[in-house]
Design goal:
Layout lengths: L14 H8 L4 E5 L5 E2 L17 E5 L3 E10 L11 E8 L4 E6 L12 E9 L2 E8 L7
Antiparallel strand pairs: 1-2, 1-3, 4-5, 4-7, 5-6, 7-8
């Protein structure tokens, strides 16, 4: 029997993000004063903040971005992971960087600046945000 994947560390500050992911929605924190986006939960770095994240809100984000950097893992650190797999740092359209696996594409086809979009994969009993090649939009 294959072991279970390790679960993400879910803090109280990150609970709204994980609640959204469980509904297959992608949220980032956004400052209500200057509209800057943040990941993970953080205070705005552009000005003074209200206590207890008072000026910060979790808002729906596009879930789109591009591959900033990536590694192809051919040997898993944990036997629950199938190899090979790609772990990437995604530069989200909103600005923050987000780390996730790239799925639904051969590992050799992943490249820097490749457009990607969020997809949600279920592993064991948890839904995780992953990224896949962006589907080109039809115009006209």
């Amino acid at each position: 029997m294959k072991p279970s994947r390790p679960k993400p560390h879910m803090t109280e500050e990150m609970k709204p993000f994980w609640d959204a992911v469980s509904e297959k929605r992608f949220k980032l924190m956004r400052c209500q004063k200057c509209q800057e986006w943040y990941w993970p939960a953080a205070y705005c770095r552009k000005h003074e903040n209200e206590p207890f994240f008072g000026n910060m809100r979790w808002e729906e984000a596009s879930g789109k971005g591009k591959v900033f950097a990536f590694n192809i893992h051919r040997r898993a650190f944990n036997p629950a992971f199938d190899t090979p797999y790609v772990y990437a740092l995604i530069e989200l359209d909103e600005g923050p960087m987000f780390g996730a696996n790239i799925v639904n594409v051969p590992v050799e086809d992943v490249s820097i600046n490749m457009p990607v979009e969020v997809t949600f994969e279920t592993y064991d009993d948890i839904i995780l945000p992953q990224f896949a090649p962006a589907v080109p939009r039809k115009t006209g």
